[in-house]
Write a structure and sequence with these properties.
- The protein has 15 helices and 18 strands.
- It is of the alpha/beta class and 473 residues long.
- The chain folds into 2 domains: 151 residues, 5'-nuclease (Rossmann fold, 3-Layer(aba) Sandwich); 215 residues, P-loop containing nucleotide triphosphate hydrolases (Rossmann fold, 3-Layer(aba) Sandwich), CATH 3.40.50.300.
- It has a 6-stranded mixed beta sheet with strand order 3-4-2-1-5-6. Strands 7-10-11-12-9-8 form a 6-stranded mixed beta sheet, with helices on one face.
- A hairpin with a 6-residue loop joins strand 10 and strand 11.
- The longest helix has 17 residues.
- The protein is elongated.
């Protein structure tokens, strides 16, 4: 869908589609030294989308505010010459903004094929881009759109078209930080020269230096599957010349159960170490269905809320994006409306509360007790709230944008732990991809923080049927 490579140094003019501005209001300022062009039909579509309380409507209103600021002191001549785009302190990388913003100020007709009626918004944008190509032969005209079909039509008509890449966290999702590293067989031989070890409260610590130690991240999980001496630990501190690691608690042992649950593999064991650590305020668990993300998170939350009283209550929420057709409005309170979306919570609670003692009455009493300490909340009402001493679980986090993720995480008050669960291979939100998901965004941005941890769970433990389906379908 791309034409030939643009020669280095050639002037570029980026024509923005409406969905780019709706997706990222600050996209106006993300093209550095290059110019930006907004067709009139884009302004019309923005005007139609400004009403409402959705995230898209808020983004449209923010775009309008940016445009109003740029137009505040502009004359008619300034508009024809282009408005200077200056740094809005949106991020540290946007210091070299020197491009200009141009609006469509006159009718720009171009011949479209007969099977492309010009009265549709997308085709009007294509006609505008064709007209710019004709009138500005020395400038590289590039259409930027999140709409794949529009980019295909543009390529057919000979217009260079690109996706909006500025919000892409990684080049490829395979580069996503895994949170876990396997030690080589000769690791201890390489790092034994300046090795220092000690014990505190039954836990063993190692302070070591070497080629690998300085490349680790805080709370990264390390393991060695040496048959003679298996080893698992978590990185606690990383300095320029050394690192400190701590041996992990083995939650696979029957004596180290968490609300009756034991880890079934090495990844689950590390996940429980992060979930049960009060010094880790933010945990992200990524994995396919059946890897135990929700079960482990709930078990750790119940122990720390009901037994240790470390948190006042568990709050669980998720993005309400339907997989199929929407079933319409749901009756009842906020919690009742969210209940149909919380099937995973109910399924895992049933596993965690199953007991043969006490009969039906005992199970009902246990369920009532747990439901009094577990609250279900909607993301729609998170803005402006502050959660104190809460254990907050965000399910299906891959469907959030980076901005929505920031809005949620900044709700955390003192003593609150946030756990984000998701599978970046199952994204249901339009215009989000594996590399632009808010979950990918926070994993990459939090990996250097001493109070966060991350694990990618790969091994399915739900059932042999589910495991086989995940691998083959």
């Amino acid at each position: 869908m791309r034409s030939q490579k643009i020669p280095e140094g050639r002037q570029r003019l980026y024509v923005l589609d409406t969905n780019v501005l709706m997706h990222d209001p600050a996209s106006l300022f993300r093209f550095h030294e290059h110019d930006v062009f907004i067709p009139m039909v884009v302004l019309e579509e923005l005007d139609k989308g400004k009403k409402g309380i959705s995230e898209v409507a808020r983004n449209v209103r923010q775009v309008s505010r940016f445009l109003d600021e740029l137009m505040a002191s502009a004359s008619e001549q300034d508009i024809d010459k282009g408005l200077a785009l200056t740094n809005r302190n949106l991020d540290e990388e946007a210091e070299d903004i020197s491009g200009r913003l141009y609006f469509q100020t006159r009718v720009m007709g171009a011949e479209l094929p007969a099977h492309l009626p010009s009265h549709t918004a997308d085709n009007t944008i294509l006609a505008t881009a064709l007209s710019l190509q004709k009138n500005k032969p020395d400038v590289a005209i590039i259409l930027v759109s999140k709409d794949i079909n529009l980019r295909i039509k543009a390529a057919v008509l000979g217009i260079r078209a690109e996706d909006y890449y500025n919000d892409r966290v990684l080049e490829d999702v395979d580069l996503l930080y895994s949170g876990i590293a396997e030690l080589e067989d000769d690791f201890w031989d390489k790092h034994s020269k300046d090795l220092d070890s000690w014990q505190e409260e039954g836990r063993t610590f190692y302070k070591l230096s070497g080629p690998e130690a300085t490349e680790w991240y805080p709370n990264q999980c390390l393991f060695s599957e040496n048959e003679k001496q298996p080893f698992s630990a978590l990185v606690r501190e990383v300095k320029k010349d050394h690192a400190t690691i701590e041996t992990a608690i083995d939650y696979q042992l029957p004596r180290n159960t968490v609300w009756g649950i034991n880890a079934r593999n090495n990844e689950q064991n590390f996940a429980l170490n992060l979930l049960m650590d009060p010094e880790v305020d933010f945990v992200t668990l990524v994995g396919v269905a059946g890897t135990g993300k929700t079960l482990l998170t709930l078990a750790a939350g119940l122990v720390q809320t009901l037994e240790n009283n470390h948190y006042k209550e568990i709050i669980m929420t998720r993005v309400t994006v339907p997989v199929g057709e929407d079933i319409g409005f749901l009756p009842g309170t906020e919690e009742e409306k969210m209940t149909p979306w919380m099937g995973a919570l109910m399924d895992n609670l049933e596993v965690l509360t199953h007991t043969d003692s006490g009969g039906e009455w005992g199970r009902a009493a246990t369920t009532d007790l747990l439901q009094n300490r577990i609250k279900i909340r909607s993301l729609n009402f998170m803005r402006g709230r502050t959660f104190l001493n809460r254990y907050l679980i965000l399910d299906e986090a891959q469907n959030l944008t980076a901005k929505q993720m920031k809005t949620l995480i900044t709700r955390a008050g003192p003593g609150t732990k946030i756990v984000c669960l998701g599978n970046v291979a199952q994204i249901d939100t339009p215009y989000l991809t594996e590399t632009t998901s808010g979950l990918t965004y926070v994993v990459d941005h939090f990996k250097d923080w001493a109070h966060s941890g991350h694990i990618i769970l790969k091994q399915g433990e739900r059932s042999r049927l589910a495991d086989f389906a995940s691998r083959t379908l």
